[in-house]
Design a protein that fits this description.
By secondary structure, the protein is of the alpha+beta class. The protein folds into two domains: 149 residues, 2-Layer Sandwich (60s Ribosomal Protein L30, Chain: A); 35 residues, Wheat Germ Agglutinin (Isolectin 2), domain 1 (2-Layer Sandwich), CATH 3.30.60. It is built from seven helices and nine strands, in the order H-H-H-E-H-E-E-E-H-H-E-E-E-E-E-H. The strands form three sheets. It has a five-stranded mixed β-sheet with strand order 2-1-3-4-5. The structure holds zinc ion (2 copies). The site of one zinc ion (ZN) has 6 residues, from helix 3. The site of one zinc ion has 8 residues, from strand 9 and helix 7.
Length: 201
């Protein structure tokens, strides 16, 4: 390598490093990351994985790249309760309160998205629970399909839970969903009062 070539290579290397640093800054300054962070409350790589799962879901289901354009008919099944779940809630509005997200515990960082409008669905399962050497910015810049295996769903679309009737617990008197009451000696008791009774016995 001539001296001139060596200098050119060094300059090009520096330019590439600067461009990479700029992209990493962009990734951390992006609206999407900021919104996920505002909801979750701390910066972590799990949240970054969640952002990538959302990105993958939007791409695979053909929903465009703006998470706010998502319909009410989208639902998500998460296979563990992790920081990543908060990105799904924050970015897609699929919250627990609206039954937009359901946890089927399988101990995997996997998300299945179902679009009831189109019938489309996709499962994204993390290839490694967390890529060891990657920083948050690096994760955000990685293609989602490098981080997640993209496959067909493994289960049916979850149905909304039925709304049970309510009765008062005979011991504490608190109104309780019927399906959470148990019969003890002919009385309806909530689970906590049942447990207390069992402890006293
Ligand atoms: Zn976290
Ligand atoms: Zn009770």
């Amino acid at each position: 390598m001539t001296q001139a070539n060596g200098v050119t290579a060094r300059v090009m290397g520096a330019v590439r490093a600067a461009a990479r640093a700029e992209r990493m800054d962009d990734a951390l300054g992006s609206d999407v990351w900021k919104r996920a962070l505002a909801f979750h409350g701390h910066e972590c790589r799990g949240l970054a994985m969640g952002v990538k799962a959302v990105e993958g879901a939007l791409a695979e289901l053909g929903l465009g790249c703006d998470p706010r354009a998502v319909s009410d008919e989208l639902t998500c099944v998460a296979e563990s309760m992790t920081c990543a779940v908060d990105a799904v809630q924050a970015l897609l509005g699929l919250t627990f309160g609206r039954h937009g997200i359901v946890v089927r515990p399988r101990g995997k960082m996997a998300f299945t998205f179902y679009d009831r409008t189109t019938g489309g669905s996709v499962r994204l399962c993390a290839k490694a629970r967390m890529p060891v050497a990657a920083s948050i910015a690096e994760l955000l810049l990685m293609p989602y399909d490098e981080l997640f295996a993209v496959t067909e769903p493994r289960g049916p679309v979850p149905s909304l839970p039925p709304k049970p009737g309510r009765e008062r617990c005979a011991a504490c008197g608190e109104p309780t969903d019927e399906d959470m009451l148990r019969v003890r000696s002919g009385e309806l008791l909530c689970l906590d009062c049942c447990a207390e009774g069992d402890r006293r016995r």
